[in-house]
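mind reviewing this stuff:

——
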Amino acid sequence: MSVSTKHPKAPQHKENHDLIVSKSIPLTTRSGFEFHVRPVTPSDEEGLAEFFNHVTKDDLRFRFLSPIPEVGKEMLSYLINVDHDHKEDFLALDIDDKTIIASAMIGANEDKSVAEVAIVVHSDYKHRGMSWTFLEYVASEARRSGIKKLQSIESRENHAAIELEREMGFTAKSYPGDATLMLLEFDLTTNNPDA
C-alpha cells in the first residue's frame, strides 16, 4: 500500500512508552478538515461518556460487535486504563482540544506480532475523511511501536469500514468460525508509507 501521510511524524518522546505521544498531534484530512489526536488519559472518562452519547446505535454495535444500549462505567474504565505499550486508546478531538470526535483502540498480543484495531466516530463528524486519516495515523503509531500486523474484525454489515480498510490496503477474508464477521489484516512490515 502506498499511503500519503499528511501529518508530521510523531515527535521523539522522553517517556518509556511505545505508543504514547506527549501532546495532541494536528491532522488534516484530504477534504481539509483539521482535528487533533492524542492518547487517552484517566481524566477523559467523562468526555468519552459524552462522546458515546453521539455514536449511532449501529456504530456502537459495529465497534463492540454486540448490540449494547450504551457504554457503561465498566467499558469506559477499560478504555481509559491502558498501558500505552500493548494497549492504547487514541482520541481524536475537534480543534478545541476538548470535544472527543473519535476513538481508536489498539490491543497487541505479547510479542506485538499482531494488534487488533477498532475505530468509532461521532455521528456529527462522519463523512469528512476523518476515518481514513485517523486510521492512517494509528497504523503509523502501531508500526513505530514495533507492531507487525494490524487486524480489524468487522461486521459484514459494516460496508463503509470494510471498503475503507480495503482501499487502505487491508486484505479481507471471512472470520474463522463466524460467518457474520470479516477479518481485515494489514501487514505493517511491507505496507510502509514512510519507506
Remarks:
- The beta strands are 25-28, 34-39, 87-93, 100-108, 115-121, 149-155, 171-174, 181-187.
